What we know:
single chain
Amino acid sequence: MKKIIIGALILLSFYYTNGIIKLLKEKDPLMLEIKKTESKYQIPFQNASIEGNNIIPGIIGKAIDYDKTYQKMKEYGTYNESLTILKEIKPVISIEENYDKYIIGGNPKKKMISILFLIKEEDQLEPLLQTLKKEQIKGTIFLDGTQLEKNRSLVKNYPEQEYELLSYQNNYQPNFLKTARSYLETTTGKKLKYCFNKTDNKKFLDWCAKEKLHSINPSLTINNNSLHDLKENLRNGLIITMNHKLLKKIPILTEYSRKKGYQLVTLETLLRE
């Protein structure tokens, strides 16, 4: 009983001491000075937007990390705003917990767009990669597993592009997809993040969700009337699918987008909260 009482007293003493230290820190003129700049650095987080089966990413917020900032300035010896340390505030609703939805675009606060290319035939990949390099574009390329097998060295030679899995011999059977996924991840040294799921395919959506892969349903598909389609639909967070046959029109489309102030980025960059 004595040991229990002594233990309880020590525990109470510990919490009491910590409470006093915290109270003194909160009343310290240095901490009060730090808190005066709260509104200057605070950026509210934005939750992901969900409507039916569709989702658009949110944005991580920021706030002052009071404990780390206080400690840093204490060591410095006085208040110095340049020593302010920020911490991230994650959205309550995030795409990271919603794999069973279709991502239809990036956050509208980001002046970015992303172009997706679907590679199903062997002769489509190399001309595309050469065009992207020439125009200094980073795109996201969805490869059929068989095309990956035939172009593995080519994929390695263009590591600046983002590669994702489209299918395997135009087949979406889970056992084939798992094998192709493993092969692609070994080739690129990166984990896959996305499935291309343009049509409402519940079976494929469920498999992707189970594998913790986000399903992408692009906002715009560009065919022959390319520049007109882009002008009519260009907006923040736009995800575009482009026919590989339109390689000659890529420079025109990218030049127009850049003149309007848009960054052309990979899906990973566009969708990063």
